[in-house]
Design a protein that fits this description.
This protein is α+β, with helices and mostly antiparallel strands. It folds into 2 domains: 125 residues, Lipocalin, CATH 2.40.128; 165 residues, no CATH class. Helix content is 20%, strand content 42%. It has 5 helices and 21 strands. A hairpin with a 4-residue loop joins strand 19 and strand 20. The radius of gyration is 26 Å and the shape is globular. The C terminus is likely disordered.
Length: 338
């Protein structure tokens, strides 16, 4: 009798353990992600002579992956956007094939504004018609940075396109420059650059305290007299997907110096040398300008080369066993209806 009871108890324990194991195993299962496709700047398989001068404290074991929410961008969607949000009630619609990265291009031309939408993301540009000619002829002054910032934010909020999570980065003053020609050793002022005389107000995006790298941008152009002449929005809607285990920062650094990931120098710094020190390591999220399903966390390396100039390195942070290397993201674009 005792033996029967012991067997019964043992069977019950085995059943409970099996059930609990199946429950926790199911919770631990994580779908594999498509392999993150980064730009091929500086080329793969290129060893870099970098020294690590930074100690990463309290490195997390996992990071959230986000999924991009997509809409079907077509003629009806673009016209509705133009009329409902930008108040372009009368206009002419057109489109073209665009390219394999950004998808089809859609245009809606009104009397004062031109709306352009690149379908893959979408990327939205609203541009005042012939503003460069009017701006060149204008005798009004450019607003100050603070004035331009207030104008840009107020204009964007009225159109309901100002991102709630936008963080002001700064202003770029595109001042008119004299066009000088040299005739027989005599320098003569021929005129001014026609595109000059405006301010670009740039806004950054952060998620969980980390910045974005790639095609995430919101900026507003303000011309003479405080007139808004362009709004550019590349700001995909994201939703949390799942947390994924990540590699340690030391492993990420080893991968970077052995030619994986990318090294990127400051624009215009074409003679940079990928040799120097890594002085800070943090995380960032990479966004492609094209169609993308998932937004991966990446290690972001801030570096200085042997001449003291800044450059950066970046490499995906998700552990290899959670990556499907037979599938890349961004992938080829789906067909977009015009």
């Amino acid at each position: 009798m005792k033996r029967v009871k012991m067997v019964s108890v043992l069977l019950i324990v085995i059943i409970i353990v099996t059930v609990l194991y199946n429950i926790y195993s199911a919770e631990d299962e994580i779908d594999k992600l498509p392999m993150l496709k980064l730009p091929e700047k500086a080329g793969p398989d290129r060893k870099r002579d970098l020294q690590l001068k930074y100690h990463f404290q309290n490195s997390p074991k996992s990071q959230m992956v986000y999924k991009v929410k997509h809409e079907t961008i077509n003629k009806e969607w673009v016209i509705k956007l133009a009329r409902d949000k930008f108040n372009i009630q009368e206009g002419e619609y057109s489109s073209d094939e665009g390219n394999s990265l950004l998808g089809a291009y859609h245009y809606y031309r009104g009397k004062e504004w031109v709306l352009e939408v690149k379908a893959a993301r979408p990327i939205i540009e609203l541009t005042r018609f012939k503003w460069t000619i009017e701006n060149e002829k204008s005798n009004e002054r450019l607003p100050t940075e603070e004035e331009a910032k207030a104008i840009a934010i107020d204009f964007s909020k009225k159109l309901d396109i100002y991102p709630q999570d936008a963080v002001y980065r700064g202003a770029r003053f595109m001042i008119e420059k004299e066009r000088i020609i040299d005739i027989g050793g005599t320098k003569i002022i021929q005129g001014f650059e026609t595109y000059g005389g405006h301010i670009i107000l740039d806004f950054d995006r952060f998620l969980n305290g980390y910045g974005f790298w790639g095609s995430v941008s919101f900026h507003v152009k303000v011309a003479k007299g405080g007139k808004v002449v362009k709004v550019y929005q590349s700001w995909p809607e994201l939703e949390p997907f799942k947390e994924y285990p990540i590699i340690k920062p030391e492993e990420a650094f080893e991968r970077l110096i052995n030619g994986n990931g990318i090294i990127w120098h400051v624009r215009g710094q074409d003679d940079y040398i990928p040799e120097g020190n890594v002085y800070e390591i943090t995380f960032c999220y990479y966004i492609s300008p094209g169609y993308q399903e998932y937004v991966h966390p990446c290690y972001y390396f801030k570096c200085k080369d042997i001449k003291g100039r800044d450059f950066m390195g970046m490499i995906g942070a998700i552990k290899d066993e959670y990556i499907d290397k037979t599938n890349q993201d961004p992938t080829n674009l789906p067909v977009h209806v015009k």
